[in-house]
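I would like you to sit down with the pair of lines that follows and say whether tokens and residues agree.
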Amino acid sequence: MTVSDAKSPQLIIRQFDALQAYEEKFLAMKALTESRDEQSPDELWLLQHHSVLTQGQAGKPEHILVPTHLPIVQSDRGGQVTWHGPGQLVAYFMFDLPRLGWNVRQLVTFAEELMIELLACYGIEAYAKPDAPGVYVNGRKIGSLGFKIRRGRSYHGLSLNIDCDLAGFQVINPCGYAGLKMVRICDLVAEPVNFEMLCKLIIAKFQQHPAFTDVKLIRS
């Protein structure tokens, strides 16, 4: 059976409207990646987490600067420590890279360009850095990313600050960079922007993307 013969949609987008526990979703996407085969559809999960600090696979404990009440979860993604929480959009990419014809660099570029395009919809001029993955506005970081690749299949993804409380970033060196300033969409535009609005834009972009010929949306 070829990929085109598979009955499952090529891309499933799951939008979670309630706040999600980080560790639960981490284990779920890892299990999905380990159990999938060449006929399995790709999946994109859109969600917000309860407040949490997550360490990358090679994360250094010294990047957590002060004792904190926030839970700290050890992850297997790339990168150092970051914060997730309400008011921050998280997108997890469970993609079969060889089937898409992508390598890891192309996946990273795709995620960065997706955030840049979303921000441009609100008149925000953002950019990526070759030596520091993520997306920036005037030197401040607005979007982060980190992936894990297992047998050519990705999981984890990106986070984009909408209107979150930045206090969680103040107890860490964000992504391992001392003194790195964070910024949110709400700091840069006058009109309100929320999770639901950004999800609609992301879904539309994937529905129009030539790599994904069959897109199914599931909300929960």
Observations:
- The chain has one domain: 3-207.
